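Our preliminary data section would be incomplete without showing what the modeling component actually yields. Below, a chain of 128 amino acids is followed by its predicted structure, encoded as tokens that our downstream tools consume directly.
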Amino acid sequence: MAFLKNRISFYIVLGLITLAFLGLGVQLITNPTGLFQSIAIIAIIAAVIYFVVQRVTRANPSKREHRAFAQAAKKSKRRFKNNEQGPASSRKAKAGSLTSIKKTKRNSSTHLTVIEGKKGKKKNRASL
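Predicted structure:
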């Protein structure tokens, strides 16, 4: 039954596309300037909507801050992992029998780096 529903929707979409092309052809033959004018208006409206959406989504500074935070976290994890690799192998060799008896679940702690900002700069309060 699902195949039948899919086939019906395919024919409906195909019929709509055919009617659209037929309407564009008739409009092109009877009133070409009106067709080009309506196409230009639709393109202008679409461009305005696109630029407004881009402006709103790009103005959100939290995405940039989140990206910087993720980069700092990744860098810090990499550095922490490099520091841990050396002594970790000797710890495993010493406590090999203890780990086989009792396995403990280890929570990975997040190690982050501090991103330096403009701490030394003072705001010009006279301009506020």
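DSSP finds four helices and no strands in the chain. The mean pLDDT is 75. Preliminary results of this kind motivate Aim 1 of the renewal.
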